[in-house]
Specification:
226 residues; alpha/beta; Rossmann fold; four-stranded parallel beta sheet; three-stranded parallel beta sheet; 9 helices; globular
Length: 226
C-alpha cells in the first residue's frame, strides 16, 4: 500500500515495485491521476484523504494481507512558508493531522495484517526533520515527529521492520511550491531514489532512519542506518 501514489516519489516507487512483481494498492486525493497510474500499473486504487478516518478504514479493509506500507502522502503547509514566529497555529494543526496523525492512524489500522506477514513500514521523512532551515519549521517539525514515531514503533513492534527515509531534494510539485519552479527544476527526479528504496525493501535491514546517502551504502552492504 502506497499513499500519495499519484505523482512524485509515491508514483516512482509504485512503478519500481510493479516492475518487481508486487501487487499494489495505491491511494491519493487526486482521482484522475491516481486511477490513471493504477491503470498503467495494473494496480488497485482507492482515492481519498488519508486524514479522513473513514478512508483509513476503507484502506485497511481492502488489504487483509499486507507486506509493505509506504507512508508517502504529505502536506507542505502555508506557502510562502512562514517563520515560526508568525506560523498560523490552525495551519500547523492541519499539517500535523496530515503528516503525523494520519500515517499513525493508517499504521494502527494495518498493523494486524503487517504483523501476520512480518511486513514492513516505510515512512518518508525529510532533512527538514533534523536541519534548521528558515521557513521549514512547521513542515520539519511534523517530519521530526514522524521520525520519532518510527523509532518507537520499531522498538514496540520487533517483528515489523520500520524504516524512516529522507530521500533528499527531488524535482516534485511540493518542492516547486516551497522554493519556486526554477530552483526545484535543478533537483533530481524522484525516479533516482526509487531503486534504492526497492533494494531496501528487498534487503530488509534493521529498522532505522536512512538518508539518501546512507540508504545507498546500506543497500550495497557498505554501511548502517544514520
Amino acid at each position: 500500500m502506497i499513499t500519495g501514489a499519484s505523482r512524485g516519489l509515491g508514483l516512482a516507487l509504485a512503478k519500481a515495485l510493479a516492475q518487481d512483481g508486487w501487487s499494489l494498492l495505491l491511494t491519493a486525493r487526486g482521482e484522475e491521476d491516481l486511477y490513471s497510474a493504477a491503470f498503467d500499473l495494473d494496480a488497485r486504487a482507492i482515492a481519498g484523504d488519508i486524514a479522513d478516518p473513514a478512508h483509513v478504514a476503507r484502506l485497511a479493509k481492502a488489504v487483509p494481507e499486507l507486506d509493505l506500507l509506504v507512508n508517502n502522502a504529505s502536506g507542505l503547509g502555508p506557502v510562502p512558508m512562514p517563520p515560526l514566529a508568525g506560523y498560523p497555529l490552525d495551519a500547523l494543526r492541519d499539517l500535523l493531522e496530515t503528516n503525523v496523525i494520519a500515517p499513525l492512524a493508517l499504521i494502527q489500522a494495518t498493523l494486524p495484517a503487517l504483523r501476520e506477514r512480518r511486513g514492513a513500514i516505510l515512512n518518508i521523512s525529510s532533512d527538514a526533520a533534523v536541519e534548521a532551515y528558515e521557513g521549514w519549521g512547521g513542515y520539519g517539525s511534523t517530519k521530526a515527529a514522524l521520525d520519532q514515531i518510527s523509532h518507537v514503533l520499531a522498538a514496540e513492534e520487533p517483528e515489523v521492520a520500520v524504516w524512516s527515509v529522507d530521500p533528499g531534494e527531488m524535482h516534485t510539485r511540493m518542492l516547486a511550491a516551497a522554493v519556486g519552479a526554477a530552483e526545484a527544476a535543478s533537483a533530481p527526479p524522484p525516479e533516482i531514489v526509487a531503486p534504492a528504496l526497492l533494494r531496501l525493501v528487498a534487503a530488509r535491514p534493521a529498522s532505522g532512519r536512512f538518508t539518501r546517502e546512507s540508504l545507498e551504502r546500506e543497500t550495497t552492504g557498505l554501511g548502517a542506518p544514520a
